[in-house]
Each structure stands twice: as structure tokens, then as C-alpha cells.
């Protein structure tokens, strides 16, 4: 790029690259400079005059807390920034490698437009207020030279066009900070009926899959069973209880064991039975939590009543309006509660006042 005529400029050590026939530059920027250089000033502009979505301020505290709580292990991807102005790149030398390394000078009157990373930028600013010691840490920044809004808008569209959010199961599989995720992984590899029967990557199970459970459903159900929140540590006793509970549950749902033994297919169970879906795991956990509280010493023997429960989806008198809406499984919170209510009634357990209220509203609709 040609030399800038301004007397005052920012200078960044960069690596120069070529993409789509255009030069771009990658640098490492100290966190303390991120809020000063890359300001978000487009909140009040109409959508067609902005280069990105408006800032969702509700996301900022959780992102900032992520940095603060994980100062030794947080990881942020690069900010992508367009420079609206003339820049000058001075190569380190004339050899092939030296031509790609150098210093990028950007006039101070140039505008920076964040194409990707405005929420990270805001989170960094908030985190620095709580942890000033992070000031000299760095984040990578990719600079594109762009003298117009149209290309910046197109870059935003392109950068987000193929972005795919990871599934809940995959997030749990790779999350080594959340103790509950660690417990769910351990259960999937320890409870006999879960071993080899748990889909660890996807949140939904395809028709042809031989899996019967998802890692995300085990995670959510165990959270309900132990009445613990995310990022809450578990005692060895609680871990043992979770293993014993799910093992004992499987002993009282014979179809699960038949599927494990390959005597019946997972597809058949999903097509014909409520217990082959995540709503059943959640309901079993909710009922199980009450059972263990009510009968802390003899809870296992009470689970035998589950063997007499007709889990067939064709039994509309039992399941329609509870786990099923119009013959289809429903994951709505009310339906999970109504399903757990039925399990509690099967196990001769009392309902909570909020559960009683939901049950009361369900009964008239059943007639």
C-alpha cells in the first residue's frame, strides 16, 4: 500500500497475506488497546448503514466473566477489522519471508470497522476493569483495507454465512471446566446401559442410529437428579449416587437392556416407546430426586414399580397430553412436568405444589 501522508499514525508489526486478490494483515494487539482503537459506534444507525448487527449488551457480562474466571485458560479467536483509510506497509526485507513480515502504519484519522468480534471487544473492555493485569495480554487482529461500507457489509455476511453452532452434546463432550459435563461423560462411560449407547456428538438421534441416549440428555437429567447447577462441583458420594441411580433405572426398564443386548433395535424403541426419548430421562430424574429425598435408604426397591408402567406411545390414554401432543413427543417444560408427575404417581410419591397446579390444569383437558 502507498505511504500515508499523515504525520501521526498507528504502527503494528504484521504478517502480510493475500486473499481474494487483496492484501490483508495479521497482528497481535494488547488487550488494553482494544477498547481504545476499536470502538462500536453504530447502535443508533439504521441497519442498511451499519457494517454488522447491533451490540447485544446482554451477552457481554457472561463473556467478560468467562475471561475473569479463566484467566489462565481463556481463548478468544481473532477480531476481524476493516480499515477505512490509506495504510502503508513496510516490509522487513526483500527476501521471500521478509516481504511478508513488516510494519503496518495506519493514520489516526482512519476508521476501524469491526466485521467480526464486537462482543469480544466489549467483553475485553469490561474484563479489564475487573482485572487490569490482563492489559498486556494480546488478541490477534486481522486487518482488511476497505474504503467503503459495501464491502464491510459483505464481509460480515460472508463471515457469518457458514457459521454453525456446536451441538449441546459436543459442547458437553469438550467442556473440561464444567464438573457436570465431566460427570455426564463419566456416566456415559460407566453406567452399563449408557456404554456404547450414547450419542456424544449430536443432540438428536437419527432414525438409523444404534444409539439410544444423547450426552446432552444425560447431562440435563443428571442435573435435575442431583439438583445442582452448571459449574457446581460434585462429591464422590453424589457421583456414586448418579451411577447407582441410572444403573438401577435401567434394571427396571427391560427394553433398555434388550437394546443393549441387540435383541431389539434402538429405532424400534424410539418409534414405539416414550422411555426411548430425552423427555423420559428428564422425568425419571425429577421423580428420582424426590424418591431419594423421600426414601433415602430404600429408594432402589421402590423403582420396581416402573416395570408395571406401560411406556408404549400407542397408549394415548396415559401419554397424550403428557409426553405426547397430537401423537408427537413434546420437550416443553410443562410436558416434562406432566410426565414426571405420572412417574411420581406410579412410585407413590407426593407432588410439589407447582406440579399439583400443572396436574390440575391437565386433568380437564384429558376428558
UniProtKB/TrEMBL annotation:
Signal peptide: none annotated. Pfam families: DndB (PF14072). CDD domains: dndB. InterPro entries: DGQHR-contain_dom, DNA_S_mod_DndB. This is DNA sulfur modification protein DndB.
Amino acid at each position: 500500500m502507498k505511504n500515508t501522508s499523515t504525520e501521526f499514525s498507528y504502527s503494528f508489526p504484521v504478517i502480510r497475506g493475500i486473499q481474494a486478490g487483496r492484501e490483508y494483515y495479521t497482528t497481535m494487539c494488547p488487550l488494553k488497546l482494544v477498547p481504545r482503537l476499536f470502538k462500536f459506534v453504530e447502535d443508533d444507525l439504521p441497519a442498511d448503514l451499519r457494517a454488522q448487527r447491533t451490540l447485544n449488551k446482554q451477552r457481554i457480562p457472561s463473556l467478560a466473566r468467562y475471561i475473569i474466571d479463566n484467566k489462565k485458560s481463556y481463548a478468544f479467536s481473532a477480531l476481524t477489522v476493516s480499515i477505512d483509510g490509506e495504510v502503508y506497509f513496510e516490509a522487513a526485507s526483500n527476501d521471500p519471508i521478509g516481504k511478508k513480515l513488516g510494519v503496518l502504519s495506519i493514520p489516526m484519522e482512519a476508521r476501524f470497522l469491526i466485521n467480526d468480534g464486537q462482543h469480544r471487544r466489549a467483553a475485553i473492555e469490561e474484563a479489564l476493569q475487573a482485572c487490569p493485569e490482563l492489559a498486556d495480554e494480546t488478541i490477534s487482529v486481522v486487518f482488511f483495507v476497505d474504503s467503503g461500507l459495501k464491502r464491510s457489509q459483505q464481509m460480515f455476511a460472508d463471515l457469518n454465512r457458514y457459521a454453525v453452532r456446536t451441538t449441546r452434546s459436543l459442547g458437553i463432550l469438550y467442556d473440561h471446566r464444567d464438573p457436570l459435563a465431566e460427570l455426564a461423560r463419566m456416566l456415559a462411560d460407566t453406567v452399563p446401559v449408557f456404554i456404547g449407547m450414547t450419542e456424544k456428538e449430536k443432540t438428536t438421534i437419527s432414525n438409523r442410529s444404534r444409539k439410544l441416549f444423547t450426552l446432552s440428555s444425560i447431562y440435563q437429567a443428571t442435573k435435575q437428579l442431583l439438583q445442582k447447577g452448571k459449574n457446581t462441583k460434585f462429591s464422590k458420594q453424589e457421583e456414586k449416587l448418579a451411577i447407582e441411580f441410572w444403573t438401577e433405572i435401567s434394571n427396571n426398564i427391560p427394553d433398555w437392556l434388550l437394546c443393549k443386548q441387540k435383541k431389539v433395535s434402538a429405532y424400534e424403541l424410539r418409534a414405539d416407546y416414550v422411555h426411548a426419548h430425552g423427555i423420559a430421562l428428564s422425568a425419571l430424574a425429577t421423580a428420582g430426586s424426590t424418591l431419594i429425598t423421600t426414601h433415602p435408604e430404600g429408594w432402589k426397591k421402590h423403582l420396581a414399580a416402573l416395570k408395571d408402567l406401560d411406556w408404549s406411545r400407542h397408549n394415548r390414554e396415559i401419554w397424550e397430553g403428557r409426553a405426547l401432543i397430537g401423537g408427537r413427543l413434546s420437550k416443553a417444560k410443562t410436558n416434562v412436568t406432566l410426565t414426571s408427575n405420572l412417574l411420581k404417581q406410579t412410585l407413590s410419591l407426593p407432588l410439589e405444589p407447582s406440579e399439583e397446579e400443572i396436574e390440575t390444569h391437565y386433568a380437564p383437558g384429558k376428558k
